[in-house]
Structures are given as C-alpha cells and as structure tokens.
Write a structure and sequence with these properties.
alpha/beta; 3 domains; 4-stranded parallel β-sheet; 14 helices; 15 strands; 35% helix; elongated
Amino acid sequence: MITIYSENKSPRLQYTLEVIFKRCLGLEFKLITDWEKFKKIDLPRINYSERDYKKSLRIIPHDLLFEKNIRPVKIKVRDWDGLPAFFLMDKKGDCPYDLFAATFYLVSRYEEYLDYDSDEHDRFPAKESLAYQSGFLERPLVNDWAAKLVELLSIDYPDYAFQHSEFRYISSIDVDMAYSYKHKGIWRTLGGFTREFLKLDMKKIEKRIKVLTDQENDPFDNFDYQEEIHKRLNIEVLYFILLADHGKYDKNIDWENESFIELVQNLAEKHEVGIHPSYHSNKVKKKVKEEIDRLESITIKHIESSRQHFLKLEVRETYKVLMANSIQRDHSMGYSEVPGFRASLCSPFPFYDLVKDEGTELMLYPFAVMDVALNRFLKLSPEEAIERISILMDAVKLRKGLFISVFHNESLSDFDNWEGWRNVYESMLKMAQVAYDPLPQK
C-alpha cells in the first residue's frame, strides 16, 4: 500500500494516482488529508504538498490537478536523470518535478482539448503533440516515471514488493476489407478492372482474374493463415470489424453478404470481436448503434470493444458516443502515421472526461504500432520495420506493460505493396514470446 498525503483531494488527483499506482504498477494506494495520521504511517509514502517532512518522498504540487478549467499550460521539457520531465517545482528535491500533474496532462490528452491544426481527416496529428515535439513519443514515459517513483521510494523501503505486473501482448487486426476481389458486385468489379487497365497494372489484372475464376485464393482472405500462426504461437488476438454502408472511406463488402457473415461468425467463435465504427460515425451516436447492432446480430454476442476506423478520434465527442452505446473498451489511442505512445503509456487506463472533469469507466487500450505507419507513411522496408518494432517492444517489456499492435488482413496478404510483411508480423509475434532480460548475456 502506497500512502499519499495531499492537503486537498480532487477528481484529477485521484484519477492520476490510479493511473500511476494501480494501472502502471499494480499497486494499491491510499490518498489522505490528515497530516498527523500521515506522519505515523510506517509504509511507503509520498508527501504531495509544500509541507516539509524528511521521512517521506516529497513532491511539490503544480496547480493543474486542483483546477477545474481547461487552459493552455506553459511546459518546458527538461532532462532528469535521463528522463524527459516537466513541471519543475523543486530544483533540490529528490523528485524535483510534479510527475503527478505531468502524468495527468499526458494521459488525459489535455492538449487535444486545446486548439490545434487538424489533419486532412480532422484528426489530432502526432506532430502537434508534446511527445512528438519533445522527442519522447516512442517511449512509455508515464510508465518510466512510475518506475522512477518506485526507485525513489525503495531507498527507504528496500524490502517492499513494488512491482506486480507482467508483460502482455495483444495482436489486434482491423478488417476494413475482408476481400480484395470477391463479393464486390458487378459494378465495383468492373470499376476495379477499369482502374487497373488504365494504369496498365497487369499484375493486378492477372491476380483479379485468377481469384474471380477460383484459380487462386483472394489475397485479403488470409484468415486461415492467421488462425494457424496465432494458434501455433499461442497469441491473444482481437478483431475489429467494419460494418458500414459503402462510402469513400468505408469499402468493406455488403454486411449482409453470406460469405462475409460466415467469416465474422467464425472469427467470433474463436476470438473477441469488436466494432470498427465507420469513418463518419465518430460523433454520431445513432450511426454507431446501427453498426453495433449489425455486429451483434451476426455474432449473437454483446459487443464491448471498439476501434475507430481511420482512427477518427475526437476526445470531446467520440468517447461520449461510445459510452452511450455501452462500449467498455476502446483501442483507438494511437497514431496511424507514426509508431509510439499517444498517451505516453503502455498500460490500459480509464478515460478522463475533461469537459465534465471526472473519471469514467471506459477503458482505453493504447497501441504502440500500426502497419500503415511503418509501410505507407514511414516507407520502411520489412527489415527496418522489424527493428523499429523490436525497440518499441523492448521498452514495453522493460516496464512490464501491454504491447498492442495493429495490423490488417490486407497487410498480411503478402501481395502488392505488402510483399514481405508477413515476415514482419510473424517476427513481432515471436518477439512477444521472448522474456525481456535487462542484464547482458554472459
């Protein structure tokens, strides 16, 4: 049990302590406002106040956790024992930075409530974030800070068992288009042929003909391969299914197609499936409900998980829409253009509603890497992608966090722009099985 003293309590402080101690470290904590009682406690303790008491770790509070408004906050990131840190409050203190306020700023996605320049899809882009601009996007900094607090507390309590969590890995796969060529209908098929003829793309024309005449399997229909590799390596996998009406950015086949229904039912029998809300649904409660109802009618299961298609996430609105539709776990916390940790965290954590200034029961599962970021945006080779994933995963293993990857059945086709990417995927799955050893091998 970690005891924290503060002169005042607030929803923001309570939330932040839960993220650091319960979610990152798997530890119980207690927040008290009784100074005399705090001084008598003979357990690891943190003095979160300006009071001076030598027998505890003191952190001087920044105002952020005791405010109720949302305002631009002046931030200067500095180096502290090799860690980026901000909100410097006590230059000579054992913990000179208010890591609680800094954690809240990052995890609540405070900066996404402020003015920013959105991208072409009206999203918060990585380049607008403090983590990207300050060079710590690719490290789970909040987990690093939590480990630093444990290190400081261990000085006075060396025998106390601080760390209880274990590294976990989840492979998540978005099914934006279950089939590349099959079940598209006459007009979409003719349109595809026309585009390929105009580009003189004979490789795709030949592939399309062979698939449509049953000489080859559809390259996107690689779910048997997925099942084999997941079963062989004992991998936990989660599927997100797009069940939107057809549109410019929603190109799955008709959700009532019998082959598609059979595919989704087969996936749901063996794995958890979640909804992949359509491109224009991120602020429309009725639209999300319609798509969830479709998935539930197919799977005969209650749908509790989601990931926004195109990662169309607007923190003020999207999570409110999901909670109104009884979604309990969302997996949209990440970027499509770069790998890294959007909330600087590699642990599941509850969403904090800054508008209402209160915590919620909606759990957010941050992912570290998406296939399209590595291939289409960064244009990495398969070998370079494997190295980039390895660095990210080692950072999560070190902090005993949860590493979540995002791939698509399209990227597992080993066809066209995705040639060689099955090897990337399989290499990542095998990395997840290797225990992390921070000590050099003898």
